[in-house]
TrEMBL record:
NCBIfam families: GldH_lipo (TIGR03511). The keyword Transcription does not apply. It comes from the Bacteria. This is Gliding motility-associated lipoprotein GldH. Residues 1-18 form the signal peptide. Keywords: Lipoprotein, Signal. InterPro entries: Motility-assoc_lipoprot_GldH. It comes from Flaviramulus basaltis. The keyword Signal applies. The lineage of its organism: Bacteria, Pseudomonadati, Bacteroidota, Flavobacteriia, Flavobacteriales.
Length: 164
């Protein structure tokens, strides 16, 4: 009887923790097997809930200590339902000057929530597509990094603004 109550408490506590993220509208990850190839595009299909509210958009990035760069260059492309495409090249700081990786996490996996766009209103009804690929280069080299090591997952997140 006591075991059942303890189990019920932990289950309810888990639901409470999961529901605390009231700003989340969309939050999905895709795994990167082994290394992230420069031609590998991570794609997210999104159907926004409405066309009147503004949202903040983020790229989520999980990496291990095998990630050896202090920055990250991404090409993020948003394809609108009626065909318009907006492509951005973005740079993010990923490590401190001493090499310590930035991000949340107590293990060797770090999670970074990277700003993509703020106060976006999805005016077109329908499905949006977000494509993300890396555009890393090493200093002094012309060709880009073919396979980016240490990346475990790429995510995309949409948040409500009004629930701060």
């Amino acid at each position: 009887m006591l075991q059942n109550r303890v189990l019920l408490f932990f289950i309810m506590f888990s639901f409470v923790l999961a529901s605390c993220d009231s700003n989340r509208v969309f939050d999905t990850y895709k795994s990167i097997p082994n290394k992230w190839h420069k031609d590998s595009i991570v794609t997210f299909k999104i159907t926004p809930p409405d066309s009147t509210n503004a949202y903040n958009l983020f790229v989520n990035f999980r990496n291990t200590n095998a990630y050896k760069y202090n920055n990250l260059f991404l090409i993020v492309e948003m394809v609108f339902p009626h065909g318009k495409t907006v492509k951005d090249t973005l740079e993010y700081k990923m490590a401190e000057p001493n090499g310590k990786l930035l991000g949340a996490g107590y293990t060797d996996v770090k999670e970074n929530k990277l700003w993509y766009k703020e106060q976006v209103i999805f005016k077109e009804a329908g499905e949006y597509t977000v494509n993300i690929q890396h555009a890393m280069r090493e200093n002094g080299k012309v060709n880009g990094v073919i396979e980016l090591e240490g990346v475990t997952d790429i995510g995309f997140r949409i948040e409500n603004i009004n629930n701060k």
